[in-house]
Write a structure and sequence with these properties.
It comes from Massilia cellulosiltytica. The protein has 1453 residues and is an alpha+beta fold. Among the domains are: 74 residues, 2-Layer Sandwich (Beta-Lactamase), CATH 3.30.450; 81 residues; 95 residues, 2-Layer Sandwich (Beta-Lactamase), CATH 3.30.450; 148 residues, GAF domain (Beta-Lactamase), CATH 3.30.450; 157 residues, Reverse transcriptase/Diguanylate cyclase domain (Alpha-Beta Plaits), CATH 3.30.70; 251 residues, TIM Barrel (Alpha-Beta Barrel); 129 residues, Rossmann fold. It is 46% helix and 23% strand. The strands form ten sheets. An eight-stranded mixed β-barrel has the order 39-40-42-43-44-45-46-47, surrounded by five helices. Strands 1, 2, 3, 4, 5 and 6 form a six-stranded antiparallel β-sheet that branches. It has a five-stranded antiparallel β-sheet with strand order 8-7-11-10-9. It is flat, with a radius of gyration of 58 Å.
Length: 1453
């Protein structure tokens, strides 16, 4: 804005007449005044409402906590009395009286019992009350469902007592959670509002307890009529949560506008409401508003009057000045008429003239005040100095006029405020004032009004300050640090309670004693800094040590204070805090020391170290980095890495650095840096500030390591027996990789040294390699050159210039190779074995490193060549010795040495597989006759032919040996049982019985055999050979030509097996096979949903036989295929018959063996059976085992998919006992998993079995498969499987396998399993303790808390109860007979992982506690005797933890 635009309004204002100017000023001041007043009143209004809302919130919280505590107390009483009624109804009245005596007197509750039919069974008001029908009550209808929750009724009138009350009810639950009635506790509504009079809510204040449906349960003041007892509009309890809802609204009951605070009671459909009248809240504000508005109006009137007075005075003075020009006398009396006192001071005579109005103003006579000195004495001492200074300046001519306010003493001794103006009207020769005239205006009344208003403002400010200081002190006392204040001069005048708690200071802190809590060495520095802050007004900040009384030590504190200034900038207060930073200071000191040490270390390390920030700019480089990069650090710091070294962009450094930053992981890599021609090993560590990088020059070590690696490969290949050409090729690679543009060739002389036996040069061009292959040794290595190589290497820098290499000039020129380095390969006896030749484009001789590599390679090649020669000789000798030591030289069969070794191996394999091993001793009959008649040569031919026939007849893992003469011993490795052994030996004996042609004659020989079996007939090879020989001798004695077992029983079993095999072949035709059926029951419905068909054999002589006795025989003989077809046909026909009889939907399961499953026509058989029987495919369940489908996975998968295409159901039987093929399970199109009975048998006692069963169920559910548990025999097993959601069960608990007729009878009886009721989960605790007294005390304590309590005297009994009941918490003793507490709880943890476990023991052994805690078996530990409150709190925590885990599982599901 320009000066011209500002000056224009001022010129306009100056041209206005004086009244206009005053009117304009008043028009500006008065609106500003009222704007300030209105803003101040609005702020006070908002503050009053905010403080009222805060108070209402606190009252609502207090009221909610009190009501919630009362309801919980009433609920506990109801639960306890319910248990008493269920345990002993006859003594229930005594328990009621005790409960009424325990609870505080204002409760005065009444107890009623309503039976299951809704009739009154007991009333504490009238023990002889009639059996009233209370089934119409709201609480009775609510509890009919058996839900065990507290119910709070609306206020009702008792039909026995006739009094109004609130009824708190819970259901009576008999065994099995059966509804048995309702227990009712009636409490007067006034009980919940009994303390409302103490809340100081005002005359129209209210408190109320309201249900979620709007029903007012209790209210103060009370509500009488029913329609007014229900609120039409209600807040949503669910959305309120734990916060307080505040709003202002007219009451729906009495129309009073109130500020309401609503708060919901936790876990209850109730809320409390506190209401305060809005008019009563604003009452103090209204008084203050009226007072301020009155003052503002008075001040406005005063401003108008003053303006009017000033305007009038100015007009009068203007007329007086006009009259003074005519006459001084008329001027003076004109001023008298203006109402102000006039004075006229003559400086030469020091006399003062005062007008009559002036004298009336102060009450003095005409002669009492005549001089200036007398006038000075009337001025108030406090004002005299400034008045005299002003008049002195006026007299001295420094100012032409003066005007000021001050006090003067009237004649009656009072002080009156005067507004004095003066103007010089005459001066002397020296410029001093000779005459001054002026006026006095009496301001006393105005000053009194201003002072009254000021005092009122100070009073309000003091009240506000007091409230502020109280809140400040409350907040300060809640802070864990010293909070203090000081006067402007620095005197400490307040500190919060923490200073006493922390330092132990007894008296209140003050300006003198505050330094006593400081360390003596810190007092002077602290005072010096404090005084400097007082002088400068700057923030006070320092550190000093403060005494801590808890450990009698001094700890470092951070002290900080800020000055508080008024509107004039004057300091009025200091506010400060002193905070314990001892640990932080020590940590910072340590960090600084470590940082300095780190900096020194980084500068001294031999590795290059640098850091970059998140923008890839260098932030630090050490000295080694400068040396390696050949750059000064000042040239790098602040520069971007990729701009300084663009060669890194896109390479491994770029990739790895980016990965480290993005994935926050450490990276390490090697990189070749072309600008420096160096290799570096780089390690990078990311942080929130960027990347820290270590670099190390590995150029030399890399070349060395590369050579060592290649050499190690060569040596490893040599040790592994690699071929010589392969070793020579590796040697050439080592040489070529040590330099640039090198080609290497290795040429080895033959054993006679006349020709090159090996020439290896893989990198040479084919033409040059062909030249080397055609080299004439005598031309290439004439005697003189051989002598040179024998003496040392021969290096030619340029073959074209060397006359001794004339023959190679053309070839070298053709391929660009100039230099040729020959390094002789010599043996350990210094014999020349060949040469290592290197061809290179560089016309030079090798450097020292290359010469060392050539020498080492030549030496390594010589070792390989010599080793090859040695190994060839040694291998030939070893082969000959090994053959002679293990084989019979005549027949080529194993001798006794190898026989024992093979027999031992076979026995070890049989042990690992759980099988048997067989050894056969065979002796040729009449062999001596061949020797005697035809000679030994003919006998040798017979033995050789016998050996050949034995080799042909035996399997690949069997062994045949000749142990002497005409005796042979066989080891049968793959023979499972005696039946297979007999078949094998009979086949061999038949083969040996064929005629043998010797010369022109054919000879017929027979043989005799003896068998021994491992481990029954011996556990060593020699023992088995001996016993087989004994069995053979017995057969010889019996006439020869037959087979004899060493053990008679073995032979009997073999004969029995042969008999069974024959009978089994005719069992189907004779109708001896039959099926039994075992039901499969759905756990959810309890109904039979299927059966499993189990084969039985009714043998005419041996009786009923289970499959275990004949299925393996059927498998081995192949009879399983026709038997399996019969089972499939019979089972499907029976199922179809049951469907026709009305039992539709019944599923039949049939087991398939391996031979059945893999038979080529399986699909045709299944299709034909289904068509023949008329059974729908979906009702046939084909059961397979893991081992069966894992034999040939791809083939099995194809068959299973084809079966699924027919519509049949597939089950995987005995899951978990075989291969556990989890990776293939999702590929198989199966519908059902069956848990093997071996896991079900110990499922409630063995943690491993329980874990496997749970895992199978969980796995099946995740794959959406059905689960059937086999072998369920007890209620405990059934309950456990039901808890973990097993789908179906089968076993003796429901029914054993029974014939078809008996199964049909079972269907007709409609037998079913009992189905568990889906009631709400009841809080149940299992107490396990062998002491009856302890268990009884625990049961009483826990029942009073509302828990269902089970009891067991041992761990085994406890596991049984856990299987049968839904238990959430277990409390167990440690020392118990049979099973200790830790073992019991460990089993509980593994079998029932969702149950929370608490140990209670009188033997607080530390080892036991540590073991239980570390194993996770124990949630809490309590010692005997226990503290009731602590134990109850732990059990409550255990239930909360159980619910959290349960809800988390539900949410996850």
């Amino acid at each position: 804005m320009s000066s011209k635009s500002i000056g224009l309004p001022l010129q306009v204002f100056s041209r206005l007449p004086l009244p206009g100017q005053l009117a304009l000023i008043a028009a500006i001041i008065l609106p500003c005044l009222w704007a300030v007043v209105i803003a101040s009143l609005h702020g006070t209004y908002e503050k009053t409402l905010a403080e009222a809302a805060k108070d209402s919130n606190n009252i609502a919280r207090l009221f909610a906590e009190e009501v919630n505590s009362s309801i919980n107390m009433i609920d506990l009483a109801a639960i306890d009395l319910r248990e008493r009624w269920l345990d002993d109804p006859d003594r229930f009245d005594d328990h009621v009286r005790k409960r009424q005596a325990i609870l505080e007197s204002p409760v005065a509750f009444q107890v009623s019992i309503v039976d299951a039919t809704g009739h009154l069974a007991y009333s504490s008001v009238d023990r002889s009350a009639p059996r009233l029908d209370l089934s119409d009550r709201e609480h009775f209808r609510t509890h009919l469902g058996g839900i065990d929750k507290l119910f709070v009724s609306r206020p009702v009138k008792g039909r026995v007592s006739g009094r109004g009350s609130i009824q708190f009810t819970r259901p009576l639950l008999a065994r099995g959670n059966r509804f048995a009635g309702v227990i009712v506790l009636s409490v007067a509504p006034e009980y919940f509002t009994r303390f409302s009079g103490k809340l100081q809510l005002g005359e129209h204040g209210t408190v109320a307890l309201v249900r979620s449906d709007g029903t007012i349960v209790a209210r103060e003041p009370a509500v009488s009529s029913e329609p007014r007892n229900v609120l039409k509009t209600m807040p949503d309890f669910a959305s309120m949560g734990t916060e307080t809802l505040m709003y202002s609204r007219a009451s729906q009951i009495d129309g009073v506008v109130r500020l309401y605070a609503w708060r919901v009671l936790p876990k209850k459909a109730l809320a409390v409401a506190v209401g305060r009248s809005r008019d009563e809240i604003l009452e103090s504000y209204v008084r203050q508003r009226n007072l301020v508005l009155g003052g503002a109006c008075g001040l406005s009137i005063l401003i108008v009057l003053i303006g009017y007075s000033v305007l009038s005075g100015m007009r009068d003075r203007a007329r007086a000045r006009a009259a003074l020009e005519e006459s001084e006398f008329r001027w003076k009396y004109a001023l008298e008429g203006a109402g102000d006192g006039v004075w006229d001071w003559d400086g030469r005579a020091d006399t003062v003239y005062f007008s009559q109005r002036w004298r009336e103003m102060l009450g003095y006579g005409d002669a009492e005040i005549r001089t200036g000195k007398q006038w000075e004495n009337l001025i108030h001492p406090e004002d005299r100095g400034r008045v005299l200074d002003a008049t002195a300046r006026l007299v001295a001519g420094l100012v032409p006029t003066y005007a000021m306010e001050y006090r003067m003493r009237a004649k009656d001794g009072s002080w009156r405020w005067i507004f004095s103006r003066g103007m010089v009207v005459g001066t002397d020769a020296g410029g001093q004032a000779a005459r001054v005239i002026g006026t006095h205006t009496d301001l006393t009344d105005r000053k009194l009004r201003e002072e009254a208003l000021h005092q009122m403002e100070q009073m309000h400010a003091a009240h506000a300050l007091l409230q502020s200081e109280q809140r400040f002190h409350q907040l300060a006392d809640a802070m864990p640090q010293i909070v203090w204040t000081a006067d402007p001069d620095g005197a400490i005048d307040y500190a919060n309670s923490w200073v006493h708690t922390y330092t132990g200071l007894v008296e209140e802190i003050n300006a003198d004693n505050w330094v006593t809590i400081l360390h003596p060495d810190d007092v002077a520095p602290a005072l010096r800094i404090w005084e400097a802050s007082l002088v400068s007004g700057a923030i006070f900040e320092t550190e000093y040590r403060v005494f801590r009384s808890a450990d009698q030590s001094y700890r470092w504190h951070q002290a900080r204070a800020i000055p508080i200034r008024d509107e004039h900038g004057t300091i009025v207060k200091w506010y400060g805090t002193t905070t314990d930073n001892h640990d932080t200071r020590l940590a910072n000191d340590e960090i600084r020391r470590l940082a300095h040490r780190l900096g020194t270390t980084l500068e001294s390390i031999t590795e290059a170290f640098l850091t970059v920030d998140l923008d890839w700019r260098f932030t630090y480089v050490n000295k080694e980095t400068e040396r390696l990069l050949q750059r000064d650090r000042q040239q790098l710091l602040g520069r971007m890495l990729w701009q300084e070294y663009p060669a890194l962009v896109g390479g491994i450094a770029d990739t790895e650095f980016q990965r480290a930053m993005h994935e926050h992981c450490t990276v390490e890599f090697d990189i070749y840096f072309p600008p420096l021609n160096r290799w570096f090993k780089v390690r990078a560590y990311p942080s929130s500030e960027g990347l820290a990088v270590y670099c190390r020059d590995i150029s030399a070590s890399r070349r060395l390591q590369k050579f060592k690696n290649e050499q190690m490969k060569l040596l490893e290949r040599m040790a592994l027996g690699a071929s010589l050409p392969e070793l020579l090729e590796l040697a050439t690679h080592i040489v070529e990789s040590s330099g640039h543009a090198m080609h290497c060739a290795v040429m080895l002389l033959g054993a006679d040294g006349a020709a090159f036996e090996h020439v290896v040069a893989p990198s040479l061009p084919a033409s040059l390699r062909g030249i080397l292959n055609e080299f004439d040794v005598d031309e290439v290595l004439p005697p003189d050159r051989r002598a040179r190589l024998q003496a040392g290497p021969v290096f030619v820098a340029d073959v074209g210039d060397d006359p001794s290499w004339t023959g190679a000039h053309d070839a070298a020129a053709l391929h660009g190779d100039r230099a040729c380095w020959w390094y002789g390969i010599r043996s350990g006896q210094d014999r020349l074995l060949g040469t290592l030749a290197v061809f290179t484009e560089a016309g030079r001789v090798p450097d020292q490193g290359e010469m060392e590599i050539l020498g080492l390679c030549a030496h390594t090649v010589s070792i390989a060549v010599e080793r090859l020669h040695i190994e060839r000789k040694a291998r030939a000798s070893e082969d000959q010795l090994e053959y002679q030591s293990n084989y019979d030289t005549l027949t080529g069969l194993a001798n006794r040495n190898l026989l024992c070794d093979r027999a031992s191996q076979t026995m070890a394999r049989a042990v690992s597989r759980g099988e048997q091993a067989w050894l056969v001793c065979i002796d040729l009959d009449r062999f001596a006759l061949v020797n005697e008649t035809l000679g030994h040569e003919a006998g040798d031919l017979v033995l050789q032919e016998t050996a050949a026939r034995l080799r042909t007849a035996l399997g690949p893992n069997d062994t045949a040996a000749r142990t002497g003469g005409d005796e042979f011993v066989l080891v049968l490795a793959d023979t499972p049982d005696e039946h297979a052994a007999i078949n094998t030996v009979q086949r061999i004996m038949a083969a040996l019985g064929d005629p043998i042609k010797v010369g022109e004659h054919e000879h017929f020989l027979s043989c005799t055999s003896g068998l021994s079996v491992f481990p029954a007939d011996g556990d060593t090879a020699n023992a088995l050979i001996k016993n087989a020989h004994i069995a053979m001798q017995r057969a010889k004695e019996a006439g020869g030509g037959e087979l004899q077992f060493y053990t008679a029983s073995m032979k009997a079993r073999a004969m029995e097996r042969l008999r069974l095999e024959g009978d089994l072949r005719h069992a189907v035709q004779r109708g001896e096979l039959l099926l039994h059926y075992q039901p499969q029951v759905d756990v959810r419905t309890g109904r039979i949903v299927g059966v499993e068909a189990l084969l039985r054999w009714a043998h005419p002589e041996l009786g009923m036989m289970s499959p275990d006795r004949f299925i393996d025989l059927a498998e081995q003989t192949g009879l399983i295929v026709p038997i399996g077809t019969w089972v499939l046909r019979t089972a499907c026909a029976d199922a179809r018959r049951w469907h026709d009889a009305g039992w539709e939907g019944l599923r039949v399961g049939v087991n398939l063996s391996g031979k059945q499953f893999y038979q080529p026509d399986l699909i045709e058989v299944v299709t034909g059976v289904l068509a023949e029987s008329g059974l729908a495919a979906r009702y046939l369940d084909i059961e397979l085992t893991e081992g069966l489908v894992m034999t040939d996975i791809d083939h099995a998968l194809a068959i299973m998919n084809t079966l699924k295409g027919l519509g049949v159901q597939l089950s995987l039987d005995d899951f978990g006992t075989g291969y556990s093929s989890l990776s293939y399970l999702k590929r198989f199109p199966i519908d059902v998993l069956k848990i093997d009975k071996s896991f079900v048998r110990d499922i409630t006692t063995d943690p491993d079995a329980a874990a496997i069963a749970r895992s199978i169920i969980s796995l099946a559910q995740s794959l959406q498969l059905q689960v059937i548990a086999e072998g369920v025999e007890t209620q405990e097993q059934l309950s456990y499987l039901t808890t973990y959601r097993c789908d179906q069960i089968q076993g003796y608990y429901f029914s054993r396998a029974i014939p078809a007729a008996a199964f049909e009878q079972l269907l007709g009886e409609e037998r079913a399993l009992p189905v568990a009721c889906p009631d709400e989960q009841v809080r149940t605790v299992l107490v396990v303790d062998d002491d009856p007294g302890v268990s009884a005390a625990l049961r009483r304590l826990l029942r009073r808390q509302g828990y269902r309590v089970l009891y067991a005297a041992s761990g085994d009994e406890g596991l049984s109860l856990l299987a049968l009941n839904d238990v959430q918490v277990v409390v167990s003793d440690q020392r118990m007979p049979g099973m200790m507490g830790i073992e019991f709880l460990s089993r509980v943890k593994q079998i029932h992982p969702k149950i929370i476990r608490i140990m209670l023991s009188g033997y607080t052994a530390v080892d036991a506690i540590i073991e239980a805690t570390n194993s996770g078996a124990v949630f809490r530990f309590h010692a005997k005797p226990w503290d009731d409150d602590a134990l109850c709190a732990s059990i409550a925590d255990a239930f909360r933890y159980h619910w959290l885990m349960r809800n988390a599982e539900i949410a996850e599901a």
